[in-house]
């Protein structure tokens, strides 16, 4: 596919300075871009790269003298990069129709224009929407709903009674609807608590590879519209994740916690059970959350505290050996003064 820079500007938004008829056939980084490709310049640290890039055009926030070719001026180069990349991204490969090597249970409804690869299993009484793509090794249990336009990559497991919305993307190896981790102790013995709820994933959610999202003990584990999770994320039973929240790799959320809208949870964050995390909260990577967080807070540390306080605290942690020596010296001086007073 080859488009003019003018067409890209009209599609993605922005104003062209220079030749708007230059042909663009792809997008690449400043370092790797070749003639016929467009790149973007959003980070001042890449000034040296924009000077030498071979790209035929560059997306920028404001006109720059560092690059002499056509420039697409936009308010947010990184956002427009995402939109332009979507234009040139190759489509998801699709198997033509339903493979004879797929297993489909009785009473299951299959929509139009689906792509069901070999070795897919779909249980009884499920509903697969229009234009759904199921890659090899996908397991869909009984009474599962998968909404229109959703894509389930290889070896995704959707356990019984789960609800998957429209245009949901679930990457390889993820498990949706496995039992939540619930046990009662009888002396030294752990007695399993049956998990009788479901998982519901709303529209336009993207779930990374190797996620585990547990079914609820009662009711449902709910992943709100537009949520994005990275690889290796664990979401416990009965958790609610609000709309447009982002959860980064290796984060773990324990059961019955409620996450608000537009929350950002950094990598390797741990959140204990039965907490409430307010809307627009940001939790810095590596933090341990042991109490609820009001809306709009930025927190970090173990346990978490306001981020600026944590930065100060972290600075003092490095000086703890020095503080210890000074404290011992002061204690000795106090003892000497007490002896003199006696």
Give structural attributes.
342 residues, alpha/beta, Udp-n-acetylmuramoylalanyl-d-glutamate--2,6- Diaminopimelate Ligase, Chain: A, domain 1, UDP N-Acetylglucosamine Acyltransferase, domain 1, 18% helix
Question: How is this structure best summarized?
Answer:
The protein is an alpha/beta fold. It has a ten-stranded parallel β-sheet, with no helix packed on it. A nine-stranded parallel β-sheet has the order 10-13-16-19-24-27-30-33-36, with no helix packed on it.
Task: Provide a descriptive summary of the structure in words.
The protein has three domains: 3-88, MurE/MurF, N-terminal domain (Udp-n-acetylmuramoylalanyl-d-glutamate--2,6- Diaminopimelate Ligase, Chain: A, domain 1, 3-Layer(aba) Sandwich); 97-308, Hexapeptide repeat proteins (UDP N-Acetylglucosamine Acyltransferase, domain 1); 312-341. Helices cover 18% and strands 29% of the residues. A ten-stranded parallel β-sheet has the order 9-12-15-18-21-26-29-32-35-38, with no helix packed on it. Strands 10-13-16-19-24-27-30-33-36 form a nine-stranded parallel β-sheet, with no helix packed on it. The radius of gyration is 27 Å and the shape is flat.
């Amino acid at each position: 596919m080859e488009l003019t820079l003018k067409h890209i500007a009209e599609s993605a938004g922005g104003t062209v300075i220079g030749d708007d008829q230059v042909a663009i056939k792809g997008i690449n980084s400043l370092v790797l871009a070749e003639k016929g490709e467009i790149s973007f310049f959003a980070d001042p640290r890449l000034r040296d790269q924009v000077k030498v890039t071979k790209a035929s055009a560059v997306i920028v926030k404001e006109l720059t003298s560092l690059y002499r070719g056509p420039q697409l001026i936009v308010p947010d180069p990184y956002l427009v990069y995402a939109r332009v990349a979507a234009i040139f991204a190759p489509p998801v490969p699709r198997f033509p129709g339903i493979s004879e090597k797929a297993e489909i249970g009785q009473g299951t409804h299959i929509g139009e224009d689906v792509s069901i690869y070999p070795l897919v299993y779909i249980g009884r009484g499920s509903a697969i929407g229009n234009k759904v793509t199921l890659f090899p090794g996908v397991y869909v249990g009984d009474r599962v709903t998968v909404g229109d336009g959703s894509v389930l990559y290889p070896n995704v497991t959707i356990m019984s009674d789960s609800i998957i919305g429209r245009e949901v993307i679930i990457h390889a190896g993820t498990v949706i609807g496995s039992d939540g981790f619930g046990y009662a102790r009888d002396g030294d013995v752990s007695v399993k608590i049956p998990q009788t709820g479901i998982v519901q994933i709303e529209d336009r959610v993207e779930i990374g590879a190797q996620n585990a999202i547990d079914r609820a003990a009662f009711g449902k584990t709910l992943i709100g519209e537009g949520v994005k999770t990275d690889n290796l994320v664990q979401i416990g039973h009965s958790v609610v994740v609000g709309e447009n929240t982002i959860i980064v790799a290796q984060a773990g959320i324990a059961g019955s916690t409620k996450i608000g809208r537009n929350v950002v949870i950094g990598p390797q964050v741990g959140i204990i059970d039965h907490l409430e995390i307010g809307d627009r909260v940001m939790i810095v990577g590596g933090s341990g959350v042991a109490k609820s967080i009001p809306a709009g807070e930025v927190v970090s540390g173990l346990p978490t505290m306001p981020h600026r306080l944590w930065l100060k605290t972290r600075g003092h942690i490095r000086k703890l050996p020095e503080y210890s020596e000074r404290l011992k010296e002061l204690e000795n001086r106090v003892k000497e003064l007490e002896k003199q007073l006696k």
